[in-house]
Amino acid sequence: MKKGVLLFITVLAVQMLWADEKPTFTTSAPDVVAVGDQFRLTYTVTTQKVKEFRAPGSISGFDILMGPSRSQQSSTQIINGKRTSTSSITFTYILLANEEGTFTIPGATIEADREKLISNSIKIKVIPEDETAKEDKAQTSDSQRSEPKATLSKDDLFITATVNKSSVYEQEPLTLTFKIYSAVDLRGFDNVKMPDFTGFHSQEIELSNLKWGLEHYKGRNYQSSIYRQFVLFPQQAGKLTIESAQFDAIVAQALRSIDPFDAFFNGGNNFAPVKQSLYTPKIT
After folding, report:
1. What is the pLDDT of residues 84-126, one digit of tens each?
2. For the whole model, what pTM was predicted?
3. With 0-12 CB in 10 A as exposed, 13-18 as middle and 19+ as buried, what is 212?
4. pLDDT per residue over 33-43, tens digit each?
């Protein structure tokens, strides 16, 4: 009798475990793209027992260039003697952004493990095309090969310093933000020198890892990220100045030469590290 009860409880526990592992169905794509960009839109279901996948036949603001392509993934892990297996199927589309604005891509439907699922809808912001990219397209014919830039422009990489208030009382806090704008292959910074914040008491805001995103700024598209932030407390009345900050940026710059000796002395790569000093403007 006890064995029968034990067997019943074991079977019931297994059934409850399987009931908790219901498949999920999710939509994913970049949050921000530019007009003319191609990108992936994916729908992923966490089971391989599926049928009747249906997605929108057309999407406002985008051209569907390809899809859906179907791929399967599965993996097995053994941790502390416990074996777990996961599997999924991903349906992928290649889209082209053709219009500026913010657009909603509706969810898709699928039958998974005999259950009908609807994936989440997502919003994508489409920013204008980079003006520099437009000029390059106009100047470069189909028969010409574009060459990498020989030097970095001041508009290719810079850091802004902004405050959230231009006028405050003594001891009234304000936030100072240093933000990176990069259109190059930025590898990091060296020799960073912050202002001494004369006339202020400063407290740095702890930030997690840099969160990069595509941003349209003064006609160009950059990868941007908040680098450092401070809360400043003025210690005296009158006009105070926040001095410039200095950053030595390390950029991987493509080599114009295809000489194999150049590639050899750069580890077999067709680019070389270049250091460029950046200075933020003073704030009064």
Report:
1. 778 899 999 999 999 999 999 999 999 988 899 999 999 999 9
2. 0.73
3. middle
4. 999 999 999 99
What are 130's two structure tokens?
A: 């980079």
Whether residue 219 contacts residue 259, with contact meaning beta carbons closer than 8 Å, is answered with: no
Domain 24-127 has CATH 2.60.40.740: yes
Q: Contact, 110 vs 53, CB < 8 A?
A: yes
Percentage, residues of the chain above pLDDT 70: 81
Domain limits of the chain?
24-127, 152-279
Q: State the pLDDT at residue 19.
A: 44
- Amino acid at residue number 187: R
Secondary structure tally for the chain: helices H, strands E: 3, 18
Find all residues with CB under 8 Å of 89, minimum gap 6, and list them: 44, 45, 47, 48, 50, 70, 71, 72, 73
| Contact (Cβ atoms closer than 8 angstroms) between residue 249 and residue 189 | yes
Q: Which pair of tokens denotes residue 183?
A: 């259109």
- pLDDT attached to residue 224: 96
Cis check for the bond before 68: say yes or no (omega within 30 of 0). Answer: yes
